[in-house]
Amino acid sequence: LQNYDCFQENFNIILASKKLDKLSSSCLQAIKDIPADSTIQKLIQTCHKLSFFDNIERITDSDYIPTEIDILNSYAPTIGIDQINYRTSFASISIVDIGGSEYSRRKWNKFYSIINVLIYIVDLTAFCKLRKERLSNVEDECVTIFTQLCNNFTLKKSHFIVLFNKKDVFDAQKRPQLNGPPPGGADTTLSVDSTSSLSLIKAKFLNHLTRKIYQHTVSLLYRNTFEASVMECISEIAAKNRAVAPM
């Protein structure tokens, strides 16, 4: 940081206002001053989660109403294990939501033997506005983990659904070059055309697989569409299971 003392002072002002119902004028000014530092500016340019700093005036306005993009950018990663149960017209479904961090992935194999349907969510924003070397790591890890799941013997009879999520944010972001060609070749440069870019990303996940993969492109902003996409896949899977079940 160029001016650490000033940054620390602003941070202390913000921290002191944490429990207040309304932010003080000094706190608002401290928030507005933080992005002025060149180091913070670089972080803002490489991480969409910091885009709030680009909209300080709008967000700190007394009449502020969050936009859809504000809501999307405020999502936090899954921590721990969440489980919900509900009934549909054709089955009782138990959904277990487990985070994708390295720590959370250590718990995945405890559920492999009881999984009927595995839903793998790809955050498309991970392919946007990242430094090239970091993008390479994100790509490699995300695709490698998915491939390992597909090849896992315990999951051999499980059905796979891939949801390419947050497409609306992906469409609006600058898309850098992918790390190497997808299986089967093809150009690695992501087009300005978001549709072509998305197709290239999907190819990296799906082209080399021999098993059936159900996939949809979704956004959490439109929950009904998100749920409909999942239920469409599950309904198709349930219908196939009934068709092959012994009479």
Written overview of the protein:
This protein has 247 residues and is α/β, with parallel strands linked by helices. It is built from 10 helices and 5 strands. It starts with a helix and ends with a helix. The protein has a 3-stranded parallel beta sheet with strand order 3-4-5, with helices on both faces. Strands 1-2 form a two-stranded antiparallel ribbon. It has 2 domains: 4-73, GI Alpha 1, domain 2-like (Orthogonal Bundle), CATH 1.10.400; 81-244, 3-Layer(aba) Sandwich (Rossmann fold), CATH 3.40.50. Helices cover 43% and strands 13% of the residues. One of its GO terms (molecular function) is GTP binding.
What topology does this entry show?
Elements: H1 4-16, H2 25-33, H3 38-46, H4 56-59, H5 68-73, E1 81-87, E2 92-98, H6 102-105, E3 117-123, H7 132-150, E4 159-165, H8 167-172, H9 194-206, E5 213-217, H10 223-244
Parallel strand pairs: 3-4, 4-5
Antiparallel strand pairs: 1-2
Helix pairs in contact: 1-2
